[in-house]
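Notebook, bench 3.
Goal today: get a predicted structure for Radical SAM protein from Halorubrum ezzemoulense so we can plan the truncation constructs. The sequence was checked against the plasmid map this morning, with no discrepancies at the termini. Length recorded as 332 residues. Pasting the sequence as submitted so the record is complete.
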Amino acid sequence: MISKGCEQCAKGGKMVLFVYGYCDQRDCFYCPLGENRKNVTDVYANERKVESDSDVIEEAKRMSALGTSITGGEPQEAMAKTTRYLELLKDEFGEDHHTHLYTGITGGRENMRRLSEAGLDEIRFHPPLEMWGDMHGTEWEEILHIAREEGLTPAFEIPGIRAEPEFLEFLDEGAAEFCNINEFEMSDGNYRRMQEEGFELQEGHMSAVEGSKDDAILEEMASHEKVYFCTSVFKDAAQHRNRLKRMAKNIRREFDEVTDDGTLVYGKAFADPERFEALGVPEEFYTVKSNHVEVAWWLLKEMIEDGDLDEGEIVEQYPTVDGTVVERTPVA
């Protein structure tokens, strides 16, 4: 990996902090934001909608976060919230809690100073596509030097739309520390506009765009020692899965099973709680809810096979705050 932020992300250790969905200066056709994130003044810590500062800290603790990746919209109000969250995270977890910000604007010296003083470590710039190849001598070159002068690590993070040698020039000149190239992706939020621009999905892939990982990008850019190409598969198989595993390990109950995908599996029964007590089931193997009992899945299956219970279901769910259920399997 080429940065501490990338190393932590690969381990699933980066909390994703989304601050607002408004972009005052941009309307990129490839923006992946869905309806619940685009043009909103909401904040999310991973999947958790933030209602108070304590939600941010709780989510970071839920996954034993090593650091935080901040993204979202660009209005000045978002900057104020971002600096507050940076200070909050550093106060709670200390200087070792690594933070990076992904932004589509240059921001200026005052904002770089505010971010640095609040505790930001890396800032990753995403210049507009129409500027690629013509950034030297503009505010996009100037801000790299300003950010470094203010104590930040300046870098680029761009979608893999096309190979652009100018990014490599900034790396060789020492202006930018590294460049992340994200595999070009389609989402529910950008699908129609992407098609209007002539892009299509790779055959047999859920999100990667045809041609987004072509030889030109790999040969001209990703071979550079300071460039990292982040694939869709890696994001799902490593980053997301490892983050779920960190959460699952922290919140699992004695009887929950953690899968290789980082989901939790348990049994659900609708018998009276007294039934479990009468059968001598140890307290650590089940818990009573308002209208059902959750129990070790293997024990539920065994009890049904022995005729001690009539029916139930095996539940698999994400360890996220919303507890999204992946699968329910009836057992009778």
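The first strand starts at residue 14 and ends at 19. The mean pLDDT is 90.
Flagging this for group meeting.
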